[in-house]
Write a structure and sequence with these properties.
single chain, mainly beta, Hepatocyte Growth Factor, Plasminogen Kringle 4, 4 domains, five-stranded antiparallel sheet, 13 strands, Serine_protease_kringle, Kringle-like, kringle
């Protein structure tokens, strides 16, 4: 696969870090190669600036330091260092859990008190033995562990959740149809393993996605949902430095349920409108959804297979007030369309009989 698949990308941010190295590279892939080859420190992330083509390899990621806005920068964080769950026996676990299953704080791997360790950063440089984080340097079948700070207990295992369990519920793998707008499963971690913030909470992130404002979107607990027509379900995270992130939910292997012909008139917000009106309320003709001229946009039909983005017909893929479209007028990006309401049409038909 692509070298960048192992990284989580965040546009327009910069992070403060003491331990970094600067390189001149032509693109993000070359910068990723510098991060993989970094020997001065453990490279957890890199920053790439498009204008200067500057590459900074970093010893810290956004979980460990301060993040702020920087328009030209792109931050790539190694996914393995963001996961707070373990895959298999957790030999590659690089999360930040630092207490045992009994709640005893872990001893730092580089220290010799209260226990003299057999596993040290010097002896096992690629085992991620940093700070006092739980690790599995010896491939223990019971998963990550650490030496403890209790003189009476040399080592103990840590309680790290399985990544697989984050996607499984009642023994079956949950899946999504289309873009997951109707996903009602109980996955509550993001693709990088961050725990989701509850929808009814406003900490650490203040937001407007509440049951009151979106009563039909099933914003329960901290489950991944897609209330706003995103590419796939997402959630706000419990990390103060990462506002939101997509969740990793597999597509169902069975075909999407074939929806009916859709409505030919306006009902509610018109999200199921599949009529052929292709002109806005002010008379501008609509731009075809599969073109990027005169207006560039993200509503690409292939990405949103269930939104009815055919030809240049008015649609409501994002839960707007009513159907709309991009226009072929270069100075008017988008406008609402005038769609006859279903009840008005029905009244008209009845009046003719």
């Amino acid at each position: 696969g692509d070298i960048l698949d192992g990284y989580l990308r965040t546009d327009g941010v910069w992070i403060l870090t003491r331990n970094k190295q600067s390189y001149q590279t032509n693109n993000e892939k070359e910068c990723a190669e510098k991060c993989e080859a970094e020997r001065r420190f453990n490279c957890r992330a890199f920053l790439f600036t498009r204008k200067k083509l500057q590459c900074l390899t970093l010893a810290e990621n956004a979980k460990m330091t301060v993040m702020f806005a920087s328009m030209d920068a792109v931050l790539y964080e190694k996914r393995i260092y963001l996961l707070e769950c373990k895959r298999g026996i957790g030999k590659d676990y690089r999360g930040t859990e630092a207490k045992t299953q009994r709640g005893i704080p872990c001893q730092k791997w580089a220290e010799k008190i209260p226990h003299k360790p057999n596993y040290t950063p010097e002896k096992h440089p690629s085992a991620g033995l940093e700070e006092n984080y739980c690790r599995n340097p010896d491939g223990d079948e019971n998963g990550p562990w650490c030496y403890t700070t209790d003189p009476a207990i040399r080592y103990d295992y840590c309680n790290i959740p399985d990544c697989e369990d984050q996607v499984t519920h009642t023994g079956e793998v949950e899946c999504m149809q289309c873009n997951g707008e109707d996903y009602r499963g109980e996955l509550s971690r993001t693709a990088s393993g961050l725990e989701c913030q509850r929808w009814d909470a406003q900490e650490p992130h203040i937001h407007g996605f509440t049951m009151k404002h979106y009563p039909e979107k099933d914003l329960k607990m901290n489950y991944c949902r897609n209330p706003d027509g995103e590419l796939r379900p997402w959630c706000f995270t419990t990390s103060p430095t990462k506002r939101w992130e997509y969740c990793k939910i597999p597509h169902c292997t069975t075909q999407s349920p074939v929806s009916g012909p859709g409505s030919q008139c306006l009902s509610g917000k018109g999200e199921d409108y599949r009529g052929r009106i292709a002109v806005t309320e002010s008379g501008n003709a609509c731009q075809h959804w599969n073109t990027q001229f005169p207006h560039k946009h993200g509503w690409i039909p292939d990405r949103y297979p269930c939104k009815g983005l055919e030809e240049n017909y008015c649609r409501n893929p994002d839960g707007e007030k009513r159907p709309w479209c991009y226009t072929i007028n270069g100075s008017v990006r988008w406008e609402y369309c005038t769609i006859p309401a279903c009840d008005e049409r029905q009244q008209g038909i009845t009046g003719m009989n």
